[in-house]
Design a protein that fits this description.
Radius of gyration: 18 Å
Shape: globular
Number of helices: 12
Helix content: over 70%
CATH class of the domain at 155-278: Mainly Alpha
Oligomer: single chain
Order of helices and strands: HHHHHHHHHHHH
Number of strands: 0
Strand content: under 5%
Distance between the termini: 52 Å
Largest sheet: none
Structural class: mainly alpha
CATH topology of the domain at 155-278: Four Helix Bundle (Hemerythrin (Met), subunit A)
């Protein structure tokens, strides 16, 4: 029983559970706000879970040798054979795209685009100065993906939200990269945070988050909840501050807090948009 539980935990870690679950919940919530019935929202969640499992598992498979010494990486620790990651990736992609296909053609196209962006990051861009780009694109796809479940025509506020999400996604990428900067430098990986250095990476992510939130405030519908935006802003400040600490664990949690903040801000805009459309 103990070994089985350890294996299940190792398999779960391959999915990168916290960001994967956050993306699934955020997309399902946005789809629900857009007017999707519970069955469609469930398909949206399954799509995100599957696609992000594919991205997470392929990431760990490709980096299994570079991840030596990282306790949260089951392949690097020998807890699972490499083929387990390939099987997880295949199962996740199949489940995710199959679920998306049950919703609409546009939903399937956007889900496939998200999977392609994540895979491109894993096999190439992760080790370049453009490592922030897949995050930026991936985050910007989520509002359009969620709204595509109810209409092939996206309202202007949702299109604007997707554009505003680009710098926010880039900031999240820098936060994620900053958490692993020391390890990446030791392994010879020239990620964005390694290239920029500690101080410039911190400065860049602060500016990007500030630009994102300011753009949200300026472009959000007038009926957007000030309470939700205020909470999102406080979370964004807390997460950004966490990235300035020396603790790797705190930095990992910091970018997840900022991701939750951006998801909450997006939800507030979606709620106001749904009221206007309705």
């Amino acid at each position: 029983m103990g070994q089985r539980w350890r294996t299940l935990r190792a398999l779960l870690r391959l999915t990168h559970p916290l960001p994967t679950l956050l993306n699934a919940v955020a997309a399902a919530a946005l789809a629900t706000v857009a007017g999707a019935p519970p069955s469609v929202a469930a398909l949206v969640a399954l799509t995100m879970l599957g696609v992000h499992t594919f991205i997470g598992a392929t990431n760990d498979y490709i980096d299994r040798d570079r991840d030596a010494g990282r306790p949260e990486k089951p392949l690097a620790r020998g807890q699972l054979p490499p083929r387990a990651a390939l099987l997880m990736a295949a199962a996740g992609l199949t489940a995710g795209l199959t679920a998306a296909a049950q919703v609409s053609r546009l939903t399937l196209v956007l889900a496939a685009l998200g999977a392609l962006v994540g895979f491109t990051y894993n096999v190439w861009l992760k080790r370049t100065a453009l490592s922030w780009l897949p995050f930026a694109v991936g985050v910007s796809i989520i509002p359009a993906f969620a709204w595509s479940t109810v209409s092939s025509v996206l309202p202007a506020p949702i299109l604007t939200l997707s554009l505003v999400a680009l710098p926010g996604g880039a900031a999240l990428a820098l936060q994620n990269s900053l958490a692993d900067r020391a390890l990446d430098a030791e392994r010879g990986m020239r990620s964005a945070a390694v290239r920029l250095g500690e101080t410039r990476a911190l400065g860049a992510l602060v500016v990007l988050h500030a630009v994102t939130f300011a753009a949200l405030l300026l472009t959000a519908p007038s009926s957007t909840s000030p309470l939700l935006l205020s909470v999102a802003g406080l979370l964004l400040v807390a997460g950004t501050a966490g990235s300035a600490t020396p603790s790797r664990w705190t930095r990992q949690r910091a970018w997840e807090i900022c991701a939750a903040a951006l998801a909450l801000a997006a939800l507030s805009v979606a709620l106001a948009t749904a009221e206007g459309v309705g």
